Fold this protein.
Amino acid sequence: MARLLGISGSLRKGSYNTALLRAARERLPEGTTLEVVTLHGIPLYDGDVEAASGVPDAVNALKQQVAACDGVLLATPEYNNGTPGVLKNAIDWLSRPPDDIPRVFHGRPFALLGASPGGFGTILAQNAWLPVLRTLRAGFWSEGRLMVSRAGKAFDAQGRLQDEAVLDQLSKFLAGFAAHCDRTAR
Ligand SMILES: Cc1cc2nc3c(=O)[nH]c(=O)nc-3n(C[C@H](O)[C@H](O)[C@H](O)COP(=O)(O)O)c2cc1C
């Protein structure tokens, strides 16, 4: 059964996107596992650092986690109608050195989901990820969509997803993605 990795693109303690991944952990199909990670400790990409000492340990550890999983859930905030720098920076690091791109990305299932307090639930951020995932030849899973809008209402004060309609969408999204990951598992 699928072993999923959920990467939150927000460092905020009270992040809706991290909370969405936590909610996903409670809604997995039988036998599917989900490890949730945040990007604390991933430095800003610096080509001089890479040239002098290679990829930092924290990046290598994340690369290993991606390479070992059957599918990645990217929980993306939307910043200024685009991708958040924290998550783009991590994906950029994960693409170094380029010789590792096939092992880390090629054909690996990636699904996008996201939450925002506004009315559009990260739709523009999710669209902005598409050329990045295409460039890396990731196996973008396009059969489901999950955009949580009005996050302030969908989550309670403790960060628990409480909107029944969204919980139902989340379950269906996860069932579809996990089944796909099961089919494509290496
Ligand atoms: C710099 C910045 C730009 C933002 N731009 C958008 C935006 O374009 N669309 C949107 O829906 N929310 C936008 N927001 C609000 C975020 O959706 C909100 O801060 C959200 O809670 C971030 O995700 P998180 O809860 O996982 O940290 C922006 C927030 C920041 C800090």
